[in-house]
Amino acid sequence: MFINIKFYEMSQIDWVLFDLYGTLVNFDTKNDPYHELNTRLWLTRSQQAKALLMCMTWNFSNMKEFADTIKPDHGIVIDDLEEKLKITLDWISLFEDTVRNLERIKSMWKKIWLVSNLWTPYKCIIEKLWIQRFFDTIVFSCDVWFKKPQPQIYLIAANKLWIKPQNLIMTWDKIWPDVNWPKAVWANAVLLDRQDKSSYPDKIKTLDQLDF
To answer: What are phi and psi of 183, to 5 degrees?
Structure first.
């Protein structure tokens, strides 16, 4: 059953903006070797915050380059984490409703914009899962030096493409920063709550319920 999301005008929507992980792609962040790397590096809390920002907004081609930048004198072996990363990437999969809904949206002549906070090794997923063909515009935080909820990550593409806020609907899997921030500042947003755990009123449980 489709649900008409009452807080925006369907006829106005020309662009649909998606997050990647947790929205279109199924990935358990607990298995992210980045977290294990931080543990091995013995980073302080402030260093961890800096490391998180850097890994999301700098283009590090591998984990060694990242570790050498964050803590040049770390002296740890991370070959096993590089291997774990490869295995992790192989296990990442699409949600079962992803492809059919991207196809549905494209068939309605809507344009699809992908914006995601991620570090460089995870960019390859859209090609591995063959979904890059659906996106008219792709913005990754590691390519533009900004991450959600910083407005620049949205404005970089929005200004270039002449996208008006009222013509855009964002679909995310987190209340903050993915839904509350854009909804409050400049765009429509809907929460995708796949596990139906949130009491947030304006939500859907599957992409099948996103109607235009």
So the answer is: -65, -40
> Is 1 a domain residue?
no
| pLDDT higher than 60, residue 3 | no
pLDDT in tens, 85-109: 999 999 999 999 999 999 999 999 9
Q: Please report whether residue 3 resides in a domain.
A: no
Burial label for 81, CB within 10 Å (0-12, 13-18, 19+), is buried
Other C-beta atoms within 10 Å of 1: how many? 5
Sign of the Cα torsion 201, 205, 206, 209 reads: negative
Q: In whole angstroms, what is the distance from residue 157 CA to residue 168 CA? A: 12
Residues 48 and 114 in one domain: no
Domain encompassing residue 22: 10-27+94-209
Rounded-to-integer distance, Cα 82 and Cα 96, Å? 28
Please determine, for residue 171, whether its predicted confidence score (pLDDT) is greater than 80. no
Q: How far apart are CA 24 and CA 46, in angstroms?
A: 31
Q: What is the pTM of this model?
A: 0.84
**Together in a domain, 204 and 109:** yes
Looking at the structure, tell me whether residues 111 and 159 fall in a common domain: yes
Q: Is 37 exposed, middle or buried (0-12, 13-18, 19+ CB in 10 A)?
A: buried
CATH number of the domain within which 157 lies: 3.40.50.1000
Q: How far apart are CA 61 and CA 72, in angstroms?
A: 16
